[in-house]
Amino acid sequence: MLVAGKDLRIEVRSRVLLWQVAPFGVMALLLSGLALGPNQAGHSSAAPGLFYLVVVLVALLMINRSAAVEATPGTRASVATLGLDPAGVFLGKAAALAVELWLSAIVLLAGSVVVLHTALHGTLEAVPSIVVTLGAIAGAGTLYGALTSGGNAAATLLPVLSLPAFAPLLIAGERSFNSALHGGALLQWWVISVVALAVYLALGILLYGVLEES
Prior knowledge:
Helices cover 85% and strands 0% of the residues. The chain is an all-alpha fold. Helix 1 (2-14) crosses helix 5.
């Protein structure tokens, strides 16, 4: 809770999420709507995929921000001095990142209804699956952010390493969203998201301390 509170206070005070990340996501969603075309808006099954594509772009920005907080001079030394459990640090950072992604998703879902003309009722039905999927992305992103932090090519290395890990989450999330909009089975896609969330949290608890020391 201490780590999550610290990360969230940093974002509130810097307002990067409000003035930079959220506008970037909205513009990316608008461009996606323009690419989809007015004739397909509201009728195409591509809208959930475009939503998750924008979510990944936003998530990569947030993951870099989260990792950069820990890379500032003296932060790791302070964590070591305070004797914080690495597993607790991981869970705190993942929780803060998840909250930031959920807040961004609220804006992007509203944009999806307005720009991509997704049905409001179906969009609301997809919210629980989106919450779980973004939680899994937050766990995986925190793990890969620690893996790539500190290097000169961290900004470019993070997408290369994390996108393959995000792929099953994006597929499951997109299919769940599509099923909520157009009808279909949700259970199998829910299972993928929930299992991925559990796996990434377990890996982070086990490996975060090792990655921070490397």
